[in-house]
Amino acid sequence: MSDDTPFPPAFDDAGGAPHQPAYTPVPNPVTQPVYGAPGADWSAPDATYLAIPEPEKKKRTARALVGAGVAAVVVLGAAGGAYAYSALASHGTQPETVVPATAVAFAKLDLDPAADQKIAVFQLTRKFPDLAKTFTDKNKVKDASLAKLFSDKPGGLNYDHDIKPWLGSRIAVAYVPDAANPLGADTVLVAGYTDEAKMKASLAHYQATAAQKIGYTTRKGYVLISDTQAHADAVASADNAGTLSSNNTYRSDTRALRGNQIAVAWVDVAAVAKLAAKRLPTSSASSIGALTAMGGGGRIAMGIHADSSYVELSGATFGTAKTATVPVARSISALPADTAGALEISGLSGQQTKSWSKLPQAQQDEINRQFDGLGLHLPEDFSALLGSDITVSAGPRTGAGTTPVAAQVVTGGGARAVSILRTFIDGFNRYGRQSGAGQSGGGSLPVTVLATSKGYAIANDPTYVKSLQTPSSATLGSTSLFKDAVPHADGAQIVGFLNVGSLLNAPGVTDEDRRTLSHIGAVGLSATQNAGAGSFDLRVTIK
Questions:
Q1: What is the DSSP string of 406-466?
Q2: Which DSSP string corresponds to 283-328?
Q3: Is the pLDDT of residue 259 over 60?
Q4: Cα–Cα distance list, 129 to 132, 166, 349, 503 (Å)
Q5: Number of H helices, E strands in the chain
Q6: Which of 76, 273, 315, 456 has the most CB atoms within 10 Å of its CB?
Q7: CB under 8 Å to 249, separation ≥6 — which residues?
């Protein structure tokens, strides 16, 4: 099959669709425009193709004709379904089938994913004319993605000459424990190949010319490449005891991701931290251990999923430190509908208080001595400042060309927070006036702080922050742009939103940037963490 064949059909590495019967031309054929050709009008096909000849006498009965028609539909439908399945179905084995079950970190890119992902990518690229010209099939996607990773320097590999002729549709990297390795683990690159002879010739050329040697071995249509032959062999032999595809923990974690994926990453955080500590000095290793213990270790799985209207990076965490359910104010949804961007975080003060309680008393006392000069006492003042919920938002650009930004904090210590902030701002302004005497502006800080019914707010524009205290008739949470970008906002401790349209006329945006951004609707973020497990989603919606 030609590299120029449009995908999804071109995603067939097995050689394309089944051979069709030879075409027998019809006598005196009528010229028909090619489907999709410029000027071709397929809304009104040539009448010649719709003409029905006069029935001859003694033709089949109506029942016989209906039966033949049904049979033809069934046969053609089956043939079409077989073709579609052959063109769209994912082919071959996954990298997980050659990576040992003991791997503690793994990431892969699959350019021959499930049918729904191929269709989604095809539909998405049609919305970007420039991309549509480049990404006409999966091989061009692969070439465009990987060519820049290789150089033409002496001893290096040229993608077109050394890699492209044999590289398959899947590539992965894994981190596998190895007691014989002083670093504690082997890093291995796993790449599918379509031509073993060309692959070995390319690697032999690299070995003969490169200063940094490598080691490699093959398993089930994949080449496993590591920094030494011993390490490559160690990884290959380790999978005799089981592969990552049969690791129940890995399978369970990655199955928690929403939908099928184009790319997947999985990390056993505690295991990786333990191996990484072996490379570091004792003091640094102890710090890593403490941080990992504080977070509860755990595991994380991430994946990139495509839909005809968005691309999404989703993730899930498992076995992390258990946290109490954090109440969510959901202030972001009540912002005005024309909000350019916003970020809401719930539970910061609770997390800060919990972390503070884990510090030794002597360390707490020393920190408070450092803050005495600022008139602060921890953890009470930090709790008042951070509150139970904080929402930072940016409004539409003003006529003066500035962007108003405000932070609204829900806290029971609003009055104390306002006092702390005003004291700090006044002190800064006094210092600015003294150091900038005779200069325009005098170094003052253009910030407004005010008490609110739920706590306090701080902003660079007094008009904007005051307007936020009055409920808006049209809210951000009611817009389809927000709902599509952040579908899992309810109950999330972190919610973020960016209206990409608000960037089109921002300073520094070029015409080329503007053309690309005009096809993007919004960027949305949501994250939830409860009872030792969590999830997050970063979504980019496409128009």
A1: EEEEE-TTHHHHHHHHHHHHHHHHHHHHHHTTTSTTTT----EEEE-SSEEEEES-HHHHH
A2: HHHHHHHHHHHHHT--EEEEEEEEETTEEEEEEEEES----PPPP-
A3: yes
A4: 5, 29, 47, 20
A5: 17, 16
A6: 456
A7: 268, 299
Q: What distance in Å separates the CA atoms of residue 157 and residue 206, rounded to the nearest whole number?
A: 7
> Per-residue b/e over 221-230, b at no fewer than 16 CB within 10 Å?
bbbbbbbeee
Find where tokens 């006044």 sit.
426
pLDDT tens sequence across 486-518: 999 988 999 999 999 999 988 888 998 898 899
Distances (CA, A) of 517 to 143, 309, 369, 529: 24, 15, 50, 32
- DSSP secondary structure letter of residue 184: S
Which pair of tokens denotes residue 24?
């027998």
Query: Which residues of 37-82 form beta strands (DSSP E)?
Result: none
pTM for this prediction: 0.75
Please name the residue that has the structure tokens 């073709």.
83
Block residue for tokens 């991430």: 302
pLDDT tens digits, residue range 171-209?
A: 999 999 999 999 899 999 999 999 999 999 999 988 888
Residues 326, 350 contacting (CB under 8 angstroms): yes
Q: Where are the alpha helices (DSSP H) in 89-218?
A: 115-126, 129-134, 138-146, 196-209
Contact 332, 477 (CB under 8 A): yes
Is the CB of residue 247 less than 8 Å from the CB of residue 101?
yes
pLDDT in tens, 287-338: 444 444 444 568 999 999 999 999 999 999 998 765 555 666 679 999 999 9
